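Illustration: RNA polymerase sigma-70 domain-containing protein.
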Amino acid sequence: MDFKLSDAVILAEKALLASKEAAKLAKNLKLLGAELDCSLSPIEVSVDSAGKMVEKGVIVRSTRAFNRNSKRRGQKKHIEVTEIPNTQRLDVKRKMNEGFDHSDPLRLFLWGPETKKLLTAKEESDLISQIQDLARLEDVKQRLQSHLKREPTLIEWSEATGVSNWVLQSQLRSGNRSREKLINANFRMVVHIAKQYQGRGLSLQDLLQEGSRGLMRSVEKFKPQAGCRFATYAYWWIRQAIRKSIFQHSRTIRLPDNVFSLLGKVIEAKKACIQGGHSQPTKEQIAGRVGITVQKLEELMYSARIPVSMQQTVWADQDTTYQEITADSQVETPDISVAKQMMRRHVRGLLSVLSPKERKIIQLRFGIEGGKQRTLSEIGDVFGLSKERVRQLESRAFYKLKRTLGSQGLEAYTDLLM
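Result:
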């Protein structure tokens, strides 16, 4: 078979280049940890019927890489890797998931990461400085609003402050972010103070809300010239807001300020006695700690009674309310009602022995008909008589009734006639 030598050289060069590229690709895949079966695609040369050389691609798979990888796999030992779970971490995670309450006020109150980060003195000083700048801008806005009698525009506000519109917006955003960051960083102090006032008539949610209001108020009132850290200054405002809320909203019937403060001292004294080892402190021990007498303590506890709603259920497993089992004092029992009707009928029969004027005087004097008792002067004005004359007619009417009743008088029936 005749063919040119130059064609064979060209084909050999192509085969060499293809083998080099395959070797380079296999090396890269081996570095990545993949197993590669090196496949080479040499060129098969054939001669067609016309005597020309034709390139025909055939696939020849090399077995050297396969044998080499097989030997390496044979040398490795079969090792089973069993991952041992961290039981302690799983138990903690399971307990946290089981104990998580989506209505827990503390989790809802301290949910953000910004509430768990403490501020350094330098960071706190920078935030307060930016808040002070924001307060000055708001003061300018208030003065401008009172002067214009309307809400000033952003351009008017920037002209009044002497800065550009862009700088004013930047200062407002920076001041608001600083205020939020300072408030969020002190939320844990609000929780700490609110927990001390639990059991005073307000829920923990209400205490946290009022404490947050006190914290926001302290941000507005704090001055760096006070010479103390912000937390020291805000502690008083938070506690004051919580105490004021308890005083105003903890009871249906509000107590006077002095009584409420004295009641707080009694509660603190009772806690101190319990911590001192007395599980059931006596009134003498509590009164001695507060500095009052036992009688004063009893009066204080009597005035501090908490009213119970009539719609409240008496027993937890039933729907019976206090209104259903409490007797109405305004409704008379049947026996008393019947007794009063018979007494009224008997009195009317007794009054029939008197003259019309004497009967009318007795009726007005004891309120038998109208329900209101009249004085002698008022009865005298009705009949045009003097006070003394009305008294004489009343005495004569009583004398007639005593003769009729014997030893019993009309005073015995006065309570039933009302």
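Reading the tokens back as a structure: The first helix runs from residue 5 to 31.
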